[in-house]
Design brief:
The structure is a homodimer. Chain A is built from eight helices and three strands. Chain A has about 180 residues and is mainly α. The interface between A and B is large, with 68 and 68 residues. The structure holds a DNA duplex (30 and 30 nucleotides).
DNA sequence: TTGAAGTTTCAGAAATTATTGAAAGTATAG
DNA sequence: CTATACTTTCAATAATTTCTGAAACTTCAA
């Protein structure tokens, strides 16, 4: 399992970016490696290709599985587990958005809800609650919206994205034709 | 500058989340503190409220300024600098999305472009390039789309978000009435 | 100028996070 | 069962990131 320079540069880059996307370097590398390989790889293949310890691979796979970004794959008559990246790019993007929503927004939403039911003790707190409720409303909208977008088919999502700034026009149109909805 | 328990719990939580949002704990705390305070605060106020060193505050403010999430504020006859969080919640959300796009997507897009102009050396690389070009296309769409959404007015964005899954219906409508666009 | 009031920088210390590798665990073929 | 081929766990260690605080710097009133 030697990587070609092209593949290696992608894998390493993905490792660096990994930390910005919410997982650590080796997890990023492992995932990139799996995405780019058509055949499933064993944990040992991965450890060897990336020159990292077997234990680290095991932990990384566990994390990728918790993100549901890899599938295991059994080969008849072979006791090893093989791993490959999940289905299509859209599936992957979906999972990443979903996980990030869970990790980045849900805990904050829940804290904000708790704070907002308290009675403000003084003017400072009243102002604070005012701001927090704005944040809460915004986060809630974004969170719900992203859930709804995820339910859209890839085709529709693609149409929507390709629409780009034209979305403004479509919104005007909606007002014209569908006052009721 | 003593925080009330309610404010403190929000500030501390925001610190914890900070790391998931791309800045460190103290930067998150500092930002939360500024959001929740109507009056601008001096660097010393911040250091005192959060019990962190003056130097740390200075670094944090520098970072928040690089994200353009805080404004400085001068008080006549006072040599201190005062800081407050940027305008509305929408402005803040915009900045956060913009920065994250820059940090999380742009470098990857640029690497992918470089890789995709290379000629694949073998079948493995051909498969790899195939997948990378899918990723590239997707990232490019998301990136452009998010830029376009940012240009929309908060009102329109809000309408769009509130539309929720109804967006599917609007898309169908668009096909019916605006075949040309 | 000067010095007081403030800010920034940065080397080292502290805290956190990631990684290794050996030991413990698990499943299966015989 | 038991040996074997594999996986997982986790304590120790390495690497990285964050934080402190003293020193250097800046600005401005007098």
């Amino acid at each position: 399992m030697k990587m070609t320079p092209m593949i290696e540069s992608f894998v390493m880059h993905f490792g660096e970016m990994g930390s910005r996307w919410g997982f650590n370097r080796t997890v990023g590398q492992m995932y990139a490696l799996l995405v780019v390989n058509q055949e499933p790889l064993s944990a040992n293949d991965i450890a060897e290709a990336l020159s990292i310890s077997r234990g680290n691979v095991s932990m990384g796979l566990k994390e990728l599985q918790s993100w549901r970004l890899v599938q295991t794959h059994h080969v008849a008559g072979d006791r090893k587990d093989y791993y490959k990246a999940l289905g299509s790019i859209w599936d992957m993007a979906n999972k990443v958005f979903e996980e990030r929503r869970k990790r980045e927004m849900d805990p904050t939403l829940s804290l904000l809800r708790d704070i907002l039911i308290e009675t403000p003790a003084n003017e400072k707190e009243e102002y604070a609650q005012q701001r927090l409720s704005e944040i809460h409303e915004l986060l809630e909208s974004i969170s719900q919206w992203s859930e709804e977008l995820q339910r859209l088919s890839p085709e529709k999502l693609n149409t929507l994205m390709k629409l780009g700034s034209g979305v403004g026009k479509v919104l005007d149109m909606k007002d014209k034709f569908l006052k009721s909805s």
